[in-house]
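Retry 2 of 3 after timeout on previous attempt. Resubmitting structure tokens to design endpoint.
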């Protein structure tokens, strides 16, 4: 499984509906509206690295209202949930 984080800058006129449209893209796991330089953070989960181009470039990048993106591919995933699951095996 490959995970990526996509930072999105959006047109002001698209802010009210863009999150829902991004969430509908296959491969998009979560969409967050955020404060700061970027307007949205999208978490992408795909089975194969090669699928990232389809989701990010052909999917996220083509949604009307998206003006700029920056994509970061995750090397490893760490979460409290994953660590708790690991240490609770056999209990």
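Retry 2 succeeded. Sequence:
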């Amino acid at each position: 499984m490959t995970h990526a984080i996509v930072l999105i800058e959006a047109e002001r006129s698209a802010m009210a509906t863009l999150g829902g449209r991004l969430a509908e893209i296959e491969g998009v796991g979560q969409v967050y509206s955020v404060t700061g330089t970027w307007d949205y953070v999208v978490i992408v989960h795909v089975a194969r690295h090669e699928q990232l181009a389809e989701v990010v470039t052909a999917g996220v990048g083509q949604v009307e209202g998206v003006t700029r993106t920056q994509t970061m591919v995750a090397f490893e995933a760490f979460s409290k949930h994953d660590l708790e699951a690991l240490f609770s095996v056999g209990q």
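Attempt log closed. Strands lie at 2-10, 28-33, 40-46, 66-73.
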